[in-house]
Every structure is written in C-alpha cells, then in structure tokens.
UniProtKB/TrEMBL annotation, chain A:
<feature type="domain" description="Amine oxidase">
    <location>
        <begin position="31"/>
        <end position="524"/>
    </location>
</feature>
<dbReference type="Pfam" id="PF01593">
    <property type="entry name" value="Amino_oxidase"/>
</dbReference>
<dbReference type="GO" id="GO:0016491">
    <property type="term" value="F:oxidoreductase activity"/>
</dbReference>
<comment type="subunit">
    <text>Interacts with COX5B; this interaction may contribute to localize PYROXD2 to the inner face of the inner mitochondrial membrane.</text>
</comment>
<protein>
    <recommendedName>
        <fullName>Pyridine nucleotide-disulfide oxidoreductase domain-containing protein 2</fullName>
    </recommendedName>
</protein>
<dbReference type="GO" id="GO:0005759">
    <property type="term" value="C:mitochondrial matrix"/>
</dbReference>
<comment type="function">
    <text>Probable oxidoreductase that may play a role as regulator of mitochondrial function.</text>
</comment>
<dbReference type="InterPro" id="IPR002937">
    <property type="entry name" value="Amino_oxidase"/>
</dbReference>
<dbReference type="InterPro" id="IPR036188">
    <property type="entry name" value="FAD/NAD-bd_sf"/>
</dbReference>
From TrEMBL, chain B:
<feature type="domain" description="GCVT N-terminal">
    <location>
        <begin position="25"/>
        <end position="245"/>
    </location>
</feature>
<dbReference type="InterPro" id="IPR006222">
    <property type="entry name" value="GCVT_N"/>
</dbReference>
<dbReference type="InterPro" id="IPR013977">
    <property type="entry name" value="GcvT_C"/>
</dbReference>
<dbReference type="Pfam" id="PF08669">
    <property type="entry name" value="GCV_T_C"/>
</dbReference>
<dbReference type="InterPro" id="IPR028896">
    <property type="entry name" value="GcvT/YgfZ/DmdA"/>
</dbReference>
<protein>
    <submittedName>
        <fullName>Unannotated protein</fullName>
    </submittedName>
</protein>
<feature type="domain" description="Aminomethyltransferase C-terminal">
    <location>
        <begin position="312"/>
        <end position="392"/>
    </location>
</feature>
<dbReference type="InterPro" id="IPR027266">
    <property type="entry name" value="TrmE/GcvT-like"/>
</dbReference>
<feature type="compositionally biased region" description="Polar residues">
    <location>
        <begin position="421"/>
        <end position="431"/>
    </location>
</feature>
Amino acid sequence: MSHPTPAPTPASAGTGSRQYDAIVIGGGHNGLVNGAYLAKSGLRTLILERRHLVGGAAITEELMPGFHFTTFSYAVSLLRPDIIHDLDLVRHGYFPLLMPHSFAPADDGGHLILSKDRNVTIQEISRHSRRDADAYDQYGHDMTQVVKAVKPLFDTVPPNLFSGRPEDALALADLAKHLKDLPKRVLHNLVRLLSGSAADFLDDYFESELLKGLLSSSGIIGTKVGPRSQGSGVVLLFHNMGEQDGVFGSWGFHKGGNGGLTQVLARVAQAFGAEIRLEAGVSQVLTSNGRVTGVALADGTELSAPIVVSALDPRRTFLELVEPRELPDDLVESIERYRFQGTSSKVNFALDALPVFGDLDGSQFRGFTNIAPSMDYLERAFDEAKYGWYSSKPYLDCCIQSTIDPDMAPPGKHVMSCFTHYTPYHLKGGDWDVERDRLGDTVQRRLEELFPGFSSLVLRREVVTPLDIERTVGLSEGNIFAGELMSPQLYFFRPAPGWNQYRTPIDGYYQCGSGTHPGGCVTGGPGRLASQQILRDLRRG
Amino acid sequence: MIRTTPFHDRLAPRNATGLWQHWSGHLAAVKYQMDEKFEYFAVRNAAGLIDTSPLYKYRITGPDAEGYLAGVLARDVRSCRDGQAQYTLWCDDAGHVVEDGVVFRHSRDHYLLTSAEPNLAWFADRIGRRRVQIEDVSAQYGSLAVQGPRARRILCGMVPELETLRYFHHTQGTMGGAAVHVSRTGYTGDLGYEVWVESDDASRVFDAVTEAGAGQGVIPVGQAALLMLRIEAGLVLIGVDFHSSRFAETDEQRSTPAELGFGWMFRDVATTDRAFIGRDAIRRELAEGTSRWAMVGLVVDWRDWDERHRAAGLVPPKDEHPVVWEMMLYDDAGERVGYTTSFMYSPALQRHIAMARVRPHLAAVGSRVQLEVTIEHRYQTVTAEVAKPPLFNPPRKTDVPSPASSAPSAAAPSASSAPPTRSSTTTGVPA
C-alpha cells in the first residue's frame, strides 16, 4: 500500500508540521473503530471529537458521586466479533457481562422471566400459555436461521446496485446465489421480517400477551413504528442480529457501561497509533476540485489530510460538513428525504435501593426489565406518537446495571436506565424544553404503578429527550440509529441509493457512521467496513 | 454416608438448582444458580464465595518439621518464610509427580498442608525417626474462598491486615467474632483469599462475609464455575491434567514436574545439597533435556473455528463448559504432537482456550498446532497457537496497593482485566 502524498501544511495547522494520512470526524464508537483500523494499517490517523470525552452516544457519566449513568445507549450485543478480535479489544479491557434473563412485569401483578436457562424459560412461559412454551423454541430456531442467513450480508460491504462496475455485478450475483440457496422457509421468513410487521410474525407463534409484548418491543426500538406497523419486522430482526458467546439475540452490559466500551476503543485506537483530539469540533470539510483536502475546526484551525472520514450522521455528513452544491442533486434530495424522526428518550435514575415487585427477591432485575405488558399496550403508546405527542403510558426498557456490575453504584445503591418510547422529536404544539420534566414524571409515575414506593427510592433523575440527544451527541432529530432502520434506508439504500459503500462524491471523503450499512446500535460495523473500503481504494491508488 | 461441610447450613438454602456433587465424601454444590456462567462472572467482576472445605488438611509440627518437609516436598520449603505459603509438589523416586498442594508455614516447626486427595499414609510413612507429628485436621476446619476483584475491600473491613497482605502470604484475624486464618491464595487466578475457620465457627464467618459483601454482587460459586476459572488461570487439576504417580498404571500416565510446567521450582537442582524425593531423577531430566512433554496454554484461531463450523452450516459453538478429556494436537505435517487436557471457551478472553501438553520443541510461545475437533461427526482440525499460561492473569491477582492509595478503589486498567470506568473524565485520552 502506498501512502498518499501529503498536501502542504497550512500555516494555521495546530500541530506544527504534523501531517495526517486520515482524519476521522467524530469519536463515537464507529469513529473510534474506523480510526483504530486505519491506524492499525499504518495510516497516521487523527480522530476529532467535539465533546470533552469520546464515545458519542455510548458514554458513561458519573452524575453523582459513585453513580455511573449510561446516559444514552446502555447495552451491548451487536458489536461485530471481527472487531473484538482484529483489534484485540480484550487486551485493552473489553469485558461484556452477560445478563441472566429478561423480566416483564404486568400491571395485574403477573410477570414473565425469559431466562438464559431454557428449562426455566419453558416453565415461565407455561405459566402463561402451555402452547407458547415450545412455540418459543420454534421461534428461537427460526429466528436463528434467518440471522445466520443475513449475517454474511451484515458483515460485508454491500454491492452498489447502480455502479455498473464488474465487482458490484459479481457481488450481486453472489448475493443472488446466497439467497437462492437458502431453504424456502428461511427465505420466506426473511422477507416477512424485512417487509412485514413484528406483530404478524409473532402472532404466528404466540398467544400470550405478556410474551408478545416482551418480544415485539424489539420491533419498535428507536423507530417510529408500532408493533403492527409494516416495517417493525426488520427492527425485530435487527435486534436479534447481535450475539454473545455464540448465542444470537443475546444482550449484555459492558463493564463500566457503554462508556466502558468506548474507553476500550479509544485505548485500542491509541495503541495502534491514532491520535485523539477532544473539544475539536469540525465546522467544515475542506475540498478542492472535487477532492477532500482536510478539515476546518470550529476554532478556525485547519488540518490537512488526503482522507477525511465522517462518523456523523448522513444529514451532517452531506448537508452540513460540505457544501451541498458540490454534490449531485439526487444525493442531496435522498439525504433530505432520509428519515430521522427520533422517537426515543432516556430517563435515568439513581436509586437508594432496588425497586420491589410483589414477592420477587430483586434478582429479576438482573437484565432488561421490559415494560410492555401486551402488544396492545405498545400500539396504544404508538398511537399518541402518530399524532405528535409522547405516550402517556410509555414503553420502557429498563435496566439496573448495578445489579450486574457493582462498580456502577455504591454498595446497596443502584443506577437504573430507562429507555423510553414513544417520544417524538417533533412535538405537535409543544416543546421538549417545556415537556422534559413532565416526561420524567410520566415515566416515574409508570414505574410507581408497577413498583409501589419507587418514587421514594429516587435520589436523582436525568431526562434525556430526543432534543437533548441531538444537542449533546449531535444525532439529527435525536435518532439513535443515525436514521431509521427501515427497508428503504437499509443495505442498497443506506444512506442513499448508490452511496452505500462508504464513499461520497468527493474524492477522499468517506462516511463511517451508523447512517451507513449495517446501521445503528453499537455494532462498529460501519466503522470497520468503511475502513476496508478506504484501504481498498488506497491500494488501488 | 455422605458428609456436609461446615458451611452447608448456610449454602444449602442458596442452592436453587438442587444439584450437588460429591467431593471427597462431602456434598459440594455444582452450581447455585441455573447457569453457572453468572457465578463465573461474579468471580471475574465482583466476588464469589467458594466452599473449599473438602480439601484434605494436614498439620505438621515438631522440631524436625522443616527438615522433614524439605526432604519430602519437591519445592524447597526452607525458602518459605513464616507467614508465607507455597504451592508445592511431592514426587516419587523416578521424579514423577505424586500430587500437588499448598503448604502454609506458620513457623519452623508448624505447617499446614492441603491436598486434593488423601496423603496421610504417604507423608506419615516418610517421617522415620524425625521428631515430627502429622495430624489430619481436615474435619476441624472449614475453608471459604473469597475470590474476585472485590474480595479485598470486602474482607479488609474485618481484617485490616488484608489491605497489604501479599500474594501467597497469610495472616490471622477475626470475622464475626470468630478467629480466622486468611491466606491470599485461591484456585481462580484472580484477586482472592481463603478464609480458614474452626468448623463450629463457620456459619458466623459466612454470615460476616456475606454481610460485608452485601449489595456488591457477591454470590456463592459452585464447582462448575470453579472448573472454568481454573482453566483460565492455568491451574492444573489432578485426575484431569495429570495423574498421581502412585496410582498410575504406566509411565505414560505419569508426569514429571517439568512436564507440568514446574521446572522453575528446580532452578538450583543441579547444585543443591538438599536431598528430596525425586531429586536425582529431576536433576537428570533437566540436565539432559529428556522431558517428554511441555505444558502450554493454547489459544484457538477464532476465524478458523468460526469458518469451519459455518461451512458445516452451524452457528459456531462458544461453550464455556470445560472439555476435560483429550483432544489431539498435530503439527502442520499431520504428526501427532500432543493433546489438550482441559479445553473451554473463555468468556473473559472471548476465545477457545486449552491447557495442553505438546512435545517440547513446540513449547515456544507462538508455535502453531492443529487441534482436532469433531464437526458434524467428522474429524477436522483448527489452528491453535501456543501461549504462556496463565491465559487470564490480571495484575490484581498479585498486586498490593501502596499504603498511600489504599482507599477502596478499582485497580488500574490493564491487560486482561476489566477496566473500571470511573467517570466520564477518564476519556482514555491522555495528553
């Protein structure tokens, strides 16, 4: 591989004569992964982060002494195994902690626990429906077969449908063969998930409302769909794509929260020689004659590099960091049409003790606590969002991470993270700065209903609305996936038709954020695949 | 009649599985929770309580005790000072290992020796005319291992000396009003201690430890998780990784210390005037390089493993349950060059790992071997690389906080250990 010839140093370069081969904009998990791979390949790499800490939406903050909040994203599953090994994350402290089960409480005092232990799960489901018990095994098996079929697509650069290049034609032929070779049932299930609703898929297996509420909630995470909306199937599939220790759809907490994970990624990137600069927001990507030349920082500093990679979302990558006039109209139009409409919030609590549910001993909280007692509950919560307001009885995906990782809170105390849905970014006739606390009250009231005495345990509350996500992290409209994970915005079309291979129309300017394939969640996939594309292009010269 | 340990009253109600195994005639919990993996994680991330009371414990006393032990134990007990402990072996005349154990030195004339199997006759028969008494005190004491990164801060509230107690040292104190002996030893390869207590006081001590650990993720840990932990820690197990030379049928089943990776115990064997059982044979073996095997760690090539299973249409299994029977090892030419004795998927290391014996020329770190596995009823091989055990070896296992920084705080981030993320101000980005 030949190093690109460094451009002349601008006089204003902040680091003297130091030149970079590549500059990555954004120190979220994808930016860090991308920068680590580039540095590992020998490129002098600079990662620029606007905030005072790396991690983007995957950070852990000590909001009161001893209490560590996963402010935004809060669990791991989808981090690509290749990254763990290629970058030797374990050496730098990668440590995912498994959760023993998921817990679904119901308002009538009932509950359901889906355990890692199959026998426990069968007993638990049988309490609600005997036929659902073995249907659950069938569902797990069918979903695993679909995940196996999709995994190779998930972990490779997708072909470009529109390039006319021979390598894309070959990749498309491979893809067609891969799909053609799938068993009939697997292919059909795949299409049903890609195009249909989570409800339709789950109704084929189950009758228990509590079980369906728990499973279908994976079909709405981060997306403005209800479980009965077409399109929720793909979100359901996406959330089963993760794996831990060889088990698909298995989730855990990283030691120290998701901030613990991004700290590991930062150490890894640095170990490979990447430089990370904090409080270095980029105002503009510099170009000359259709080629990238570097970046200008918010403070006016200009840094030059022949490769610039944006880990920001597609709106910022194409419409804000560069002059849209330098881009083809159809790309600009696609990006303007690209749907963000963030719908998720977080409400985080510091708790004096574990909440109480019936006569359970508290160990039920060692995993996700899923507050969606039925599919109807989710659908009704969605109804309010359709008409521009947040759910009066929201869907909550809670986790008390301190039950798994005692370092997250002082002994006996706890931190509780509540992913909250639906809370549309655009409130009709309202304003998140006004509604923030009311949303916190809504969530707390809901928890009080299920766990009497909850409010008296609250030592501190933090409410993070879609507007706060946008302001703090920079994700447009607060969409946690840097754009919705719906079929029109996936694979061939993420983030735009013809621009799904991490390149941009500007030579040397690349994209590596969650707005690219395979998409959102803490997968690192975009960062990794983008680095492959960049290095391939470099080799071609 | 199966017996129970001194901690049984406390542990039995905590065993939610109803599963017990027999360990030296005692009930020992296989696991307390449905999935032992979470007990494993408790040790690697918080602390686990392991009832190790069924170990055999021998008290060795008398004015000639030091000289006696220096002659029957292969490792020189004279280099162990009062208040220290030593991992040790005893061998036969041919230089084959009889067994391993830990000897705790209280004074020149007072020792405690632990072992997995009964050894009273073997040791008593070798006293001769020396002024030595050996007493089986196995039933008089319970032992509770408290293992994991939180172990120190949980215990040092009760026994402040533990704050600075060094690896393989021991001290006295009280817990729950009962006199205890605490050693910084264990079978997990992590920061940890073993608490030795008179059987009658065991429940009080257990209560005191659980109270001190309340709200910190401390749970009892059964045998299943312990066997995972010890493989990552590279700690050999009799009957699995080696066999007692006393009961082996052939020399093929026997091992020398060097073949088990304990050559380092005998750096002075060429010159020492200490006569100990097996010395001449060990001296000869080390001088002439006649060891048949080298004990190594193996790390399986993850990509190879995944691809071979995927090619067979399978989700690559990542099963943490140890495989404690032999899996064959070959070199690239297909020559048989060794075998694994313990194999597992390590959740902490995210790799399949093994303890294995290879021919000495392949013992160097980085040597490649082919591991035979069965995939869909067909023998296949996957590449594995020789690595130095212990494969999981966090600095916290042996480190001692300096007195200045002895406030309870997490250890510094480091290789193979989970990093604490204290706050958002630790950006991982030093200037």
